[in-house]
Specification:
Strand order of the largest sheet of chain B: 8-7-6-5-4-20-10-9
Largest interface: A-B, 46 and 51 residues
Number of helices of chain B: 10
Helix content of chain B: 25-40%
Radius of gyration of chain A: 19 Å
Helix content of chain A: over 70%
Number of strands of chain B: 22
Distance between the termini of chain A: 24 Å
Oligomer: heterodimer
Order of helices and strands of chain A: HHHHHHHH
Structural class of chain B: alpha+beta
Radius of gyration of chain B: 38 Å
Strand content of chain A: under 5%
Shape of chain A: flat
Largest sheet of chain A: none
Amino acid sequence: MNSSNILSVITFVYGLAAALYVFSWVFKNKLSGNVATWVMFSGACGNAAGIILRWAESYRLGYGHAPLSNMYESLIFFSFTIAAIYLVIERKYEDRIVGAFASPLAFLALAYASLSPNITDRIQPLIPALKSNWLIAHVITCFLGYAAFAIAFVVSLMFLLRQRQESREWGILDHFPGLSFLDGLNQQMVMFGFFFLSIGIITGAVWANSAWGRYWGWDPKETWSLITWFVYATLLHARMQRGWHGKRIAYLSIVGFGAVIFTYFGVNYLPGLHSYGQSG
Amino acid sequence: MKKKQTPAGFFYRLWKYFASINLTIAILLSLAITSIIGTVVPQNGDPAIYRHEYGDSLYSIFSFFDVFDMYHSWWFRLQLLILTTCIVVCSIDRISATWKTIFVKVPRFNISRFRNASEKQEFISDLPVDHLKKVCRSIVERGFGYNMIEDKVNGFCIFAEKGRWTRLGVYAVHLSVILLIFGGLLGSIFGFDGYIKIPEGQTVDRIRLTGSEKAHDLGFGIRCDDFSVRFYDSGAPEEYRSRLSIIEDGKPVLKKDIIVNDPLRYKGINIFQSSYGMLRPKQITFNFESKKTGKVYVEELAFGDEFDLPENLGRFVLRNTVNPYIFHGNNLGKSVVGALISDRNEAVDIVIPFRFKNFDRMRRGDVSISIQDFSRSYYTGLQVTNDPGVPMVYLGFIIMIAGFYITFYMSHQRLCVEVIQDSNKTRVMVAGLASRGNMRMKSKVNKISRRLVELSRVRG
């Protein structure tokens, strides 16, 4: 059994966890919530094991490298970071309803990696440009940032849902976490994401300077990461200095995640140096 | 009645305009939106291609607004200038107030602010006031750097705080952005960026600057002693390696192999592996296979050489190379061009791509000519840069990371524990104020009050 098989199985584990979280939320069933946490936790462990196994497999093939070098590898790492960050939040705030929205993201990322015909799960040797120790620091920090923004995104959606239903009675949303909790969590995730996005951009710049002799070249991926940075910088200033909160911050967070998604996927359709992130 | 606008008043209003966060938010959003343009329209391309792609009228509008090099256009730089001004003005405008909070001998605590704090816990304790005082003090001392006790008639009040200096974190972030912008400016004014091709064995001391036809004298020579390229079995490149020597006054002073991600740095100038190519080989060995007899004749030829073929098959002249060779719309890459001249003086062009050595068989002539071997020699393509702004930019990077950590994950926390004896009950209030991160302050307040409740219970 190789790492790709394990990760395909983990896709369904995440799917099951998502179903259990939704079930426990809709039917207010505590038992299925407890089970969901354990399923999600084992999914994250299996996901991590798959990544480590893939790392070992690449050494067995004779061109060992950290599994962070193409679309497939970034997606499996993305789903792991989403799952890990979500589990930390669940433990810290003891709330499982966020799980009903966050776990589907981990499931989708892994499902896309495992099932999309455009994404190969073959372990490929590193091209010269990627042979650098900066690869690990750059990719890990970027994806910690992306995963935090992903969770900020679902929390913002929850905020808007909840706010819309505030006045009316609708059973499912009764147990929804309060608006101030969602608003605060959104802010926390945005700060975490912004911190790591910044480190990700910086490590990328230092790497670019050591590989190509320039730390910034306005290549589309660089530019889009900066656009993402501008959007979240706007959010943080609006919130900390103008006292914006709630709905407007939720909308900005959603726009920011749109920029993240474009930085991640959309840019591959534009020409540039980061094209090794492409599906092929 | 209209107030007369004095210059000082105008300056003050301008200052306040830049100090208001609205302009900063507007400029951040406008930077985000306008930056998109340069990712959709390829930058610094060939004008002819742009004209073809966008048509004449759109092309002239785009080039008027420098859309094809938008990140260096006046309007993009103007936005950066406004952002810089905002950052500087905002920081100066706010830092004086922050300064007073940070560098104060005896911090002032306002009890009513704590009473109205949202991070607050209140409970009734059975413990006597004196005992509570001791307990509170030991708990508070552990978590806070500064604390003081204010005694009251029927109780006491403990104030404590820590992390006053963390209020400076946001200014560190702002400083780092300024350093990045100025570092970038420094590099673009005093630095250079160019490209050279060096054939194996040759020395070059001038580079062609990117984006212009100008040459730049390096002040020393770069010799390429050897170039090699390795491929994986899949055909993907594994490594490009140039063995370089730095030549000063005709003598090599430094030798280094460079690969992608491992450049050579000399006198502030960085030399990077960027591309490579094959030079025209000096000698090519051909096989001439006669269709009639099946015999193969082998001959090594240089460009311009002629070879008289046996069996009256004519004579072959090796002329030159073409790159690329397009055959029925396919690019077959670099190819050898020669001519086969028959006895009756009729010439046939012979083209053999290096990649398809037996290409000539398709001609089905009396003799088929193929490449057996050739002397491979390469040139290496090097990116040569000098950027005096890099140290400033890197300093900015470090300050930015530290600044973000301080701003997001540390805060100025103030705590107040108020204990008041009320008939035979003791009322305890634990309240906290934080410069940010109210969630953390809340959990801290809860933790402290929980400990106090527990202690009360154990004693009671």
